[in-house]
Amino acid sequence: VQLQASGGGLVRRGGSLGLSCEASGSFIAINRMAWYRRRPGKQREMVATITHEGVTNYGSAVKGRFAISRDNAKNTVYLQMNNREPNDTGVYYCNADLRTASWHHHWGQGTLVTVSS
To answer: What are the tens digits of pLDDT across the range 31-75?
Structure first.
């Protein structure tokens, strides 16, 4: 099972950037999918989560600026980041609860997002 994130890069302050993360491999189902990030000098924090039914939850630092969505047919979760701030710079990780023989928490490899001021 693998979570492959893509879409990171450099964006100017106030700009927009989208991330995607696809789950691949042998699994039976996907439940919750999420994005986390680790900003320089800080612990990893939750950015946004989304259930299989599409119920979303956001961290307070990104609420109103970021939007999480998913395509269950493509086993993919997305993160649209708008009105980026330099404080959003960090490594973004996708995360998913995947069922093989049992449910397990899986992490993607991380993608670097840099916001210039």
So the answer is: 999 999 999 999 999 999 999 999 999 999 999 999 999 999 999
- The first and second tokens of residue 65, run together, are 């600026």
**What is the rounded (10 degree) CA torsion for 23, 27, 33, 36?**
-60
Distance CA 2, CA 26 (A): 9
Task: Note whether 96 and 32 are within 8 A (CB).
Answer: yes
* Best CA proximity match to 66, nearest among 43, 99, 90: 90
Tell me if 91 sits within 8 A of 37, measured CB to CB. yes
Mean pLDDT of the chain: 94
Residue with tokens 């023989």: 101
Strands 76-81 and 17-24: antiparallel
